[in-house]
Amino acid sequence: MSDFEFTNNWFEQSSRARWDLLFTELKIKRVLEVGAYEGAGTCYLINKLAKAGGGEIYTVDTWGGGKEHLKSGIDMSAVEGRFRQNISRAVTKAGPDVKLVTLKGPSDFMLSALVAQQKAGYFDFAYIDGSHMASDVLCDAVLGFKLLKIGGVIGFDDYGWMEQPPSVRNPLLSPKLAIDSFINININKVTLLQSSPSQVYAQKASD
Ligand SMILES: C[S@@+](CC[C@H](N)C(=O)[O-])C[C@H]1O[C@@H](n2cnc3c(N)ncnc32)[C@H](O)[C@@H]1O
User: Fold this and answer.
1) Domains in the chain, CATH or no CATH each
2) Is the pTM of this model over 0.70?
3) Which of 23, 98, 113, 125 has the lowest CB atom count within 10 Å?
4) Is the CB of 41 under 6 A from ligand 1?
């Protein structure tokens, strides 16, 4: 039986295969994760870094949910409870060489604080999967990119995510416009990597 409790398979469906590849392509030691939910990605990272000799993960979430979680009536305090239990098990298994920093709060505040703490250029991998609002995703992208070292990779989930039903779809409420804008504005500073309909990855070539 699994040691972990996840109520969805978002990570398995969207990220696991791409992250497996990323860990073979890149020497990853320091990871920034925006949007942890129940910690499926966080537990993967803890386990992966433990096997690779150690590393650091900074994970950011409000555990207040996005608009889509609140609309569907998800109990976010129960989600946070499962996150805490899952990561505690993963960290115990991993041992002392993996450092996990959990930052509870809005990503714009938390990422700006990391920049202010001289963490610009610190991370090998930044994964953006927090708020789906275009203005929030753009902010996470700009700050996440600043926190990424040259040669590091920034990844985005939910590239094709849209609100349902189609009649209420508004591009300002989805990540795509922000991801496209960020990539276009930084096209001379990134190399696009193998992506998928739901995820975009880019390697930082310069500041
Ligand atoms: C789709 S879930 C993340 C899923 C997770 N990456 C996984 O693979 O299981 C999005 C998360 O972003 C968080 N979130 C939404 N808006 C946020 C914000 N402005 N700052 C930080 N976290 C936010 C939500 O609380 C939610 O847990």
Assistant:
1) 10-204 (3.40.50.150)
2) yes
3) 113
4) yes
Instruction: Give me the average pLDDT of each 10-residue run along the chain (207 residues).
Output: 88 96 96 98 98 97 86 91 98 96 98 98 98 97 98 97 83 96 98 93 97
Q: Give the atom of ligand 1 at the shortest distance from the alpha carbon of 133.
A: 16
C-alpha 2 to ligand 1 mean position (Å): 23
Out of 61, 70, 109, give the residue to mutate to test ligand 1, the one with the largest number of ligand atoms within 8 Å of its CB.
61
> At which residue do the structure tokens 């001379």 appear?
188
Query: For the chain, what is the largest distance between any 2 Cα atoms, rounded to a whole number of angstroms?
Result: 50
Residue 193 vs residues 42, 74, 115, 127, 201: alpha-carbon distances, Å: 22, 34, 25, 14, 5
Spatial neighbors of 25 by CB under 8 A, at least 6 apart, are none
